[in-house]
Amino acid sequence: MKHSSETTRHRTRHRTRPRIRRPRRGSVFAATAVLTVTVAAAPVAVPGPPPAAPAPPVRAPALPANPAYGALAPCALIPGEGLQMTEGLPTGPGYAPSAGTVKALTLMIDFPDIKGRGTARKRYAEFFPQTSRWFKRSSYGRLKYRSTAPIKHWLRMPHSFRSYGIKRGSPFEPGYRRLVADIAKVAGPKVDFSRYDLVNVLVTPNAGPPAARAVLSVTYSGNQRAPVADGVPLANVSFVYSRQDDGSGTLSKTGYRVLPHENGHVFGLPDLYTRRGGESAGHWDIMSEDWGAGNDLLAWHKWKLGWLGAGQVDCVARPGITRRALRPLGRAGGTKLIFVPVSKYAGYAVEARTNEGNDEAVCKPGVLVSWVDTQVDSGRGPITVVDSTPGSGGCTDERNVHPGLSDAAFTPGETFTGGALGTGVRVRVTERDSRGDYRVEITRYASGGGRG
Ligand SMILES: [Zn+2]
């Protein structure tokens, strides 16, 4: 990641590497990933927090108590400090609102040296209305995403693509700052930027390398030093380059998914993929993998975005046994998230995932357990999905779906046992009931200081 030229006040999101799994042409991946990959020992895939979890103290630490969350306060993990982006609640100021009607301005741009390929309208149609539908479905109607493209043709930038110096991992300064300023200048006569919550810039797909070689798409969110247009800083801007084409012929159906990912940053969500790809959260969240078959967001992200009602989240902050039914995320209503906090910053999330709604790639439906740590930065694995079958090759043959975690969910009869920071956690999946909900029994207990 190249953040050296920026202050930490710039919440800058980069997708610095392609997260594409190309079993038939793996050399493409290897050739581009080699610059950033650090070889590390594979973590042992056992149920429980990842090795990155904080060292256990002697006593169970205090739980958070943000009064705005009422009875859920112990589960509203506070944001980690000094991070670019955090899983903590609530999302800080400067990001776009993620519930209610959200107005997106979408512009299609090209350059004097890279003229638009195809029409701008067609470029727009690669992403809309699919992106709006994805958000509607994922948010259970709580996010009404309204995209407007007031300029129907390619918006020609005054300078060459080359002159902006855009590469994978480019920081906001100076190239993107100039590009955003130029966009504001050129679109200015026809656009009132103050009427929008976020901006999408769909770059002509022939600018820059194919996405399979290097993903340039990027979002700069919450950047208060961004150029100002119509009195507002253009702080929440998602740029989309190229096409996420894996050669499987599904581009027209799945290629839009880079935009919900980038907009996720505008709404304050960190990246869940790491330098090692989707090994932390697999295909269970679009912030982890956004190529290929459809996926949803983890329940924690839905809560963070304001898409779950208070009655849809259960907080298990005290020792004892809790029995609940979890409604799969792909359906509306019901309990969506049970959270077991072990500190102010970390805990276990429990949710049900099936092959429904935006979740198209689920091959082993069941109850997913994941470890959330708000002190882990974006791109370093702030959420780690627990694998119920460590060491298995998974159950998917879909391209671009992390195979090892594809069968991570726990099915009826299976039990997760883990714990951290003096708290033990057991999640037993008892049955899938006649409504299709998963019944779980969660036991929270003092585990004597160590990690279970
Ligand atoms: Zn990202």
Plain-language structure description:
Residues 1-41 form the signal peptide. This is M6 family metalloprotease domain-containing protein. Keywords: Hydrolase, Metalloprotease, Protease, Signal. InterPro entries: Peptidase_M6-like_domain (IPR008757). This protein has helices at 26-33, 120-125, 130-138, 161-164, 172-187, 251-254, 258-266, 299-304, and strands at residues 12-14, 100-110, 143-148, 155-156, 198-203, 218-220, 228-229, 232-233, 237-240, 313-315, 320-326, 337-341, 346-353, 366-373, 383-385, 415-420, 423-432, 438-446. It has 452 residues and is α/β, with parallel strands linked by helices. It is globular, with a radius of gyration of 22 Å. Zinc ion (ZN) binds at residues 13, 15, 261, 265, 271.
